[in-house]
From TrEMBL, chain A:
One of its GO terms (cellular component) is nucleus. This is AAA+ ATPase domain-containing protein. Heterotetramer of subunits RFC2, RFC3, RFC4 and RFC5 that can form a complex with RFC1. It is found in: Nucleus. It comes from Phaseolus coccineus (Scarlet runner bean). Signal peptide: none annotated. One of its GO terms (molecular function) is DNA clamp loader activity. SMART domains: AAA. Its main location: nucleus. Keywords: DNA replication, Nucleus. May be involved in DNA replication and thus regulate cell proliferation. It comes from the Eukaryota.
Automatic annotation (TrEMBL), chain B:
It is found in: Nucleus. Gene3D superfamilies: 1.10.8.60, P-loop containing nucleotide triphosphate hydrolases (3.40.50.300). Residues 14-60, 548-567 are annotated as: Disordered. It comes from the Eukaryota. GO terms for biological process: DNA damage checkpoint signaling; DNA repair; mitotic DNA replication checkpoint signaling. It comes from Phaseolus coccineus. Residues 47-60 have a biased composition (Basic residues). This is Cell cycle checkpoint protein RAD17. Keywords: ATP-binding, Cell cycle, DNA damage, Nucleotide-binding, Nucleus. Residues 23-46 have a biased composition (Low complexity). GO terms for cellular component: nucleus. Residues 548-560 have a biased composition (Basic and acidic residues).
């Protein structure tokens, strides 16, 4: 088992990073009536961990006995019936799905799952009808229609089930849903917190940590705890005992992007643009999300850029990121950004160096 | 010249009655088929007129009226000629295509070398003491109206040979079939008839020659119109039967195949034709391809006709006709005749001078306009996919979406243009993003709007286009990439136990955080570091088989694998 999973806190009491939030959540859950919850925050900050812990708090250890299923829902969509296949994780008391995996049929999924849950409610020990919890991942990736239908089903079936929503950015969740949930923002953990966690893991694994080594990992992780732990484990596998100068393995895709960035800085021509496209394709094939590519690329470019240009380049990056979300084929927009950057940079070079 | 033609036509009309029976018919049948196609071409030109009429509808009413008059008279002339065809034909009413049919090798508009090739081929085979040739079949391919059959006829008469031809039986319509079956006549498919015809030629071809001519002029067999085949088995039969013919015929035979211009079309028939061509060639037929007639030789012929007819058509107009005909001389001549018809009619209608003025104005218009194709008689030409691509990639602004290789066509310095282009392509993408599977009318509009934006954007953005040179045209990689990433996602999901046991991570987290680390962890040694570029390229190759099954646009699939020379 990976350390990330091994050292994941199981209960709200064991949570190390967001202790105050965990404390509040515990109070909330023990008071029986729990509202819908919306967890949002950057990746690697502990949303999932908190959700799992909340579920355990609600239903006891039974919540951890999950089974993975590939389920097919038959959905009657007006004129035709659809078969939608989704992976679900479920225990007796909760179901977890990522409806955005269903593409543009996501709205049917949400409705259908909630309806079905409402149909067979569990009866708790006191003979009272209890409720089930539906965990929805990546709510921000849901289409607008799906979010609307989610809102309606939320209202209609709120007696029978509680929703726990999880997403990276609450800005892409409609106002209507946000106002119906208790919003819980999960910050990216500070470097000190990450350091703390790493040291704890080091202690439990009985490792010798040279001073400053864990700090370096924490710094490199970009305040992403999952990444820090993964990197930590990788270092352990690559070389132990640790030395102070040991290289922390970089992410290959990030390397690739910085390569692209230096390509762009070196030459600005359609030919180079074409080569860059090939490299972008490589990234896309490896399932790196285009938004992350664009973000990282901007990051790399900004590092090498003259301060004068930074504002304009950021503006265009934002512009094309927006258009990328509106559009379907991300490559067009990333490429347009690269072309725009080349054009800006080239005229800058000509203006300064003649 | 005209007299001779008159006679021919009369006799062809006589034959019309008997043409239901498949037979070896004399050279006159040629004119018959010709007149058929003529009526076809006139109908297209009148369609063209309609279009022109629509486009001119904004101009004032009197002109419109006048054009309508033309239309009526035009029809009258042609229908009139049809009625009187069997009886008598006045000089003016005759179709110029027949009237100015080439009579000598010099008059042919076909390229001299091609004619020479064909002629020597026939000469060799018609020599009295000829050697035994394995291949007695000549395959002539080319667009409609490039003078394939005309060349054969002219060459035959030059060599003093008689042309025998397969005379396509008229199709049996359903009512007729019902009637026939009542009388006990069996229905035989056209393909059957053709097969039996070929069989006869193979077996008794020589015998037949001996009974027809006493002086034994040499014989050329002409197969002009292959029977229509529908479906694989029928096509296979046709192929086999033609292959037999190629292998065993003793008479020099010319098979004419009409290309429909676009080899990349998905049209089943066009592809069949291509296959047929290949199979015939492989079984030993000699192949000659006729190119579309060049504008220059077309002009020469049109001027000659103008001289003979004594109609004063401006050089510009002849130019225009020659250009718009797309290398189809039959069409060009018909257009010319139609065009020359007008002034006569105007005069005979004794219309006022103002109509003359408006006529002039109108006739100037098409020349002045940016689109050189607004003539009433422009051949309705569909651009082949590659032609269209070339038109806009090379930024020929006088005048359809392959977005991937636009960059090749940009100047090396023109990074600004590249940005404009990719922005427009992005716009098109955003428009298309609204499409959700099911098709309705609004989405059709959206689609064409997106296509239009992409094309126009590319045309507009490419402000200093490169001169034409050789470019490789590749298929878009986008589909492959999408497919590969989906596939990889699936595989990864299965591979990673964490994903199964705990919560279902989104694929982005998998890809960006788990995978790179797992690669390192899984190897246990830092040696085998596998960069994404190598991996992906290998991935692509591995998956290549699968990609072909996806619903890539069929056209682009068909052509994509080869690099295609610039056009």
């Amino acid at each position: 088992m990976l350390w990330v999973d091994k050292y994941r806190p199981k209960t709200l009491d064991h949570v190390m990073v967001h202790t105050d939030i965990a404390h509040n959540l515990k109070k909330l859950v023990t008071e029986q009536d729990c509202p819908h919850l919306l967890f949002y925050g950057p990746s690697g900050s502990g949303k999932k961990t908190l959700i799992m812990a909340v579920l355990r708090q609600m239903f006891g250890p039974g919540a951890e006995k999950v089974k993975v299923e590939n389920r097919t829902w038959k959905v009657d969509a007006g004129s035709r019936s659809l078969d939608i296949e989704l992976t679900t994780l479920s225990s007796a008391n909760h179901i977890e799905i990522s409806p955005s995996d269903a593409g543009f049929q996501d709205r049917y999924v949400v409705q259908e799952v909630i309806k079905e849950m409402a149909k067979n409610r569990p009866i708790d020990t006191k003979g009272k009808k209890g409720f089930k919890v539906l965990v929805l991942n990546d709510v921000d990736k849901l289409s607008r229609e799906a979010q609307h239908s989610l809102r309606r089903t939320m209202e209609k079936y709120s007696v029978y089930c509680r929703l726990i929503l999880c997403c990276n950015s609450s800005s892409r969740v409609t106002e209507a849903i946000r106002s119906r949930c208790l919003n819980v923002r999960i910050n990216a953990p500070s470097e000190e917190k990450i350091l703390e966690v790493l040291e704890l893991i080091g202690k439990k694994e009985e490792l010798q940590l040279p001073p400053g080594f864990a700090a370096r990992i924490a710094e490199k992780s970009n305040r992403n705890l999952r990444r820090a732990i993964l990197a930590f484990e990788t270092c352990r596998v690559q070389q132990y005992p640790f030395t102070n100068k040991q290289a922390i393995p970089p992410m290959d895709w990030e390397e690739h992007i910085s390569e692209i960035a230096s390509d762009i800085m070196k030459e600005q021509s359609p030919k180079r643009l074409f080569q860059v496209r090939g490299k972008l394709y490589d990234l896309l094939i490896n399932c790196i999300p285009p938004e992350i590519i664009l973000k990282r690329l901007l990051h790399e470019l900004l590092r090498k850029l003259d301060a004068e240009l930074k504002h304009e380049v950021c503006h265009w990056a934002a512009y094309y990121e927006h258009r990328m979300r509106l559009g379907q084929k991300a490559i067009f927009h990333i490429e347009a950004f690269v072309a725009k950057f080349m054009s800006i940079y080239k005229s800058f070079l000509i203006a300064t160096f003649g | 010249m005209a007299k001779r033609n008159c006679v021919v036509i009369l006799s062809s009309e006589d034959e019309d009655a008997a043409s239901n029976v498949p037979s070896l018919s004399s050279s006159r049948s040629y004119t018959k088929t010709n007149s058929k196609s003529k009526s076809r071409s006139t109908s297209t030109s009148s369609r063209g007129r309609k279009k022109a009429r629509a486009s001119h509808s904004r101009s004032h009413l009197s002109k419109l009226h006048e054009i309508d008059l033309f239309g009526d008279d035009f029809n009258e002339v042609f229908t009139g000629s049809k009625v009187s065809a069997g009886t008598q034909r006045s000089f003016a009413e005759e179709l110029w295509v027949d009237k100015y049919k080439p009579n000598s090798l010099e008059e042919l508009a076909v390229h001299k070398k091609k004619v020479e090739d064909v002629k020597t081929w026939f000469e060799e085979r018609l020599k009295p003491l000829k050697g035994v040739y394995n291949n007695n079949v000549l395959l002539i391919s080319g667009q409609a109206g490039v003078g394939k059959s005309a060349s054969i006829h002219v060459i035959a008469s030059h060599l003093g040979a008689i042309v025998y031809g397969w005379n396509t039986p008229t199709p049996v319509i359903w009512q007729e079939h019902l009637y026939n079956s009542g009388t006990g006549t069996q229905y035989t498919s056209k393909l059957d008839e053709f097969e039996s015809f070929v069989e006869r030629v193979r077996k008794y071809g020589l015998l037949l020659t001996s009974c027809t001519g006493e002086s034994k002029p040499p014989i050329i067999l002409l197969i002009d119109d292959l029977p229509m085949t529908n479906g694989k088995s029928a096509f296979g039969r046709l192929k086999n039967c033609l292959q037999f013919l190629v292998k065993s015929t003793q008479i020099p035979t010319a098979i004419l195949l009409t290309d429909y211009g676009n080899a990349d079309s998905v049209d089943y028939n066009a592809r069949c034709l291509e296959e047929l061509k290949l199979s015939l060639e492989s079984s030993g037929a000699c192949k000659v391809a006729f190119n579309p007639i060049t504008a220059n030789s077309m002009k020469k012929i049109l001027f000659r006709i103008c001289q003979v007819e004594q109609c004063d058509v401006t050089a510009e107009y002849v130019d225009l006709i020659a250009k718009t005909s797309g290398g189809d001389i039959r069409h060009a001549i018909t257009s010319l005749q139609f065009f020359c018809l007008k002034p006569n009619l105007v005069n005979s209608l004794a219309s006022s001078t103002c109509s003359h003025g408006s006529l002039n104005e109108e006739s100037n218009k098409p020349v002045r306009s940016d689109y050189g194709y607004s003539l009433h008689f422009g051949r309705d030409e569909a651009l082949s996919l590659f032609h269209a691509l070339g038109k806009f990639l090379h930024n020929k602004r006088e005048t359809g979406v392959g977005t991937e290789y636009v960059l090749d066509f940009l100047d090396d310095e023109a990074i600004d243009d590249a940005w404009t282009l990719s922005s427009y392509l992005g716009d098109a993408d955003i428009l298309l993003a609204k499409l959700r599977g099911s098709y309705n009318e609004a989405e059709g509009v959206l689609q064409s709007a997106a296509a239009s934006i992409a094309v126009r954007g590319v045309l507009f953005g490419n402000s200093n286009p490169l001169s034409s040179r050789w470019h490789a045209v590749r298929r878009p990689k986008l589909w492959q990439v999408e497919k590969a990433s989906l596939y990889k996602n699936e595989v990864d999901r299965l591979r990673i136990p964490a994903c199964k046991r705990f919560s279902s991570y989104h694929m982005s987290i998998m890809a960006t955080e788990y995978m790179p680390m797992l690669k390192l962890l899984g190897n246990r040694a830092c040696g085998g570091y596998d960069g994404p570029s190598q991996k992906s390229s290998r991935n692509l190759e591995m998956e290549d088989f699968d990609f072909d099954k996806m619903d890539l646009d069929e056209q682009s699939r068909g052509i994509s694998d080869d690099d295609i020379e610039d056009w």
